[in-house]
Amino acid sequence: MTDWHSLQSRLPLLDRSRLVHLRQDLGGEVVQRLLSLFIEDIRQQRKDLVQAFADQDYVRLSHSCHSLKSVCGSYGVLRCQFLSEKLEVAGRRGDSEQVSAMTPVLLQGLTALLEEMTNETGGG
């Protein structure tokens, strides 16, 4: 098992304390709307990542990962933030072996995140 794989598996998908702090700071209704926007953003970015990977467009993949890294960090999505950062670097280096290994893991994490966040917001 590679170092990044071992490290990511120890990170929680979602740091729920971040959501608690957001609710305390902004209020439940505002956070609910933000989370709905976050879910839509993640869905679109996941599609973009899938397409960039399929096209072997590592520049686009790196840009997508950079954006994912930022948005995941804002909401305490630690595992996907970590993977996005590592995949961004691999894409910039043109490291096809690492990109091929990491992309499915990040996509799996984003899918799990979308399921969890949809449940969190009560949306469908």
UniProtKB/TrEMBL annotation:
Gene3D superfamilies: HPT domain. Coiled coil: none annotated. Keywords: Phosphoprotein, Two-component regulatory system. The modification Phosphohistidine is found at residue 66. Pfam families: Hpt. InterPro entries: HPT_dom_sf, Sig_transdc_His_kin_Hpt_dom. It comes from the Bacteria. Residues 27-124 form the HPt domain. This is Hpt domain-containing protein. It comes from Zobellella aerophila.
